[in-house]
Design goal:
Layout (H helix, E strand, L loop, with lengths): L3 H17 L6 E6 L2 E7 L2 H4 L6 H13 L8 E6 L3 H10 L3 E6 L7 H4 L10 E3 L4 H16 L3
Helix pairs in contact: 1-6
Length: 149
C-alpha cells in the first residue's frame, strides 16, 4: 500500500492545492518510515517569495518535525523535476532518496547539470513516477493562463 505511487499521489494532492490557489502546480511530500513528515506546494505568489517552492516548504516542515537539518533516512516525492535552487537545498539536506514525477526541460536541474547528479552522493533518484499526471496538471495550468477570459 505505501509505495512510490501512493506517496506521489499525496504529492499530486499538494500540487492540486497549488493549482487551486493559482500557483504553479507543484507538490511535494517528505516521507520517513512510511509516514509523511513534511508537505508543501508552491506558494511563490501567495508569499511573494521566489524561494517558496514545494520542495523548500516540504523540506522545512520535515526539518522542523524531525528537529534536525539532515534527512538521510527520508524520501522526497515531488511532482516536477526540482529546479537548480531546490537541487542545492536537497544536496545540503542529505536526503536519502528523491522520487520525481514529470521532467522539467526548461527549468529542471538537468538543464544545468546534464547527466551529473546535483544531489548528495548517497542520495538515490527515481524518476517518472506518475509523470503523466503531474505533466497534465502543469499543462492545464498554463493553458488556463494563456486562454482569454
Amino acid at each position: 500500500m505505501f509505495d512510490d505511487t501512493y506517496f506521489m499521489q499525496r504529492a499530486l494532492q499538494e500540487a492540486q492545492l497549488a493549482f487551486d490557489k493559482d500557483e504553479i502546480p507543484v507538490g511535494a511530500v517528505v516521507v520517513q518510515h512510511n509516514k509523511i513528515i513534511g508537505r508543501g506546494h508552491n506558494l511563490t505568489e501567495t508569499l511573494h517569495d521566489v524561494t517558496a517552492h514545494a520542495e523548500m516548504i516540504a523540506l522545512t516542515a520535515a526539518f522542523n518535525h524531525m528537529g534536525a537539518k539532515y534527512l538521510p533516512d527520508a524520501t522526497l516525492y515531488v511532482t516536477l523535476e526540482p529546479c537548480h535552487m531546490c537541487a542545492g537545498a536537497l544536496y545540503w539536506s542529505k536526503i536519502g532518496r528523491i522520487v520525481v514525477g514529470a521532467a522539467d526541460e526548461k527549468h529542471g536541474y538537468r538543464r544545468f547539470y546534464g547527466s551529473q547528479s546535483p544531489f548528495h552522493p548517497k542520495t538515490t533518484l527515481t524518476t517518472g513516477v506518475l509523470a503523466e499526471e503531474g505533466a497534465r496538471l502543469m499543462k492545464q495550468f498554463f493553458q488556463r493562463k494563456r486562454s482569454p477570459l
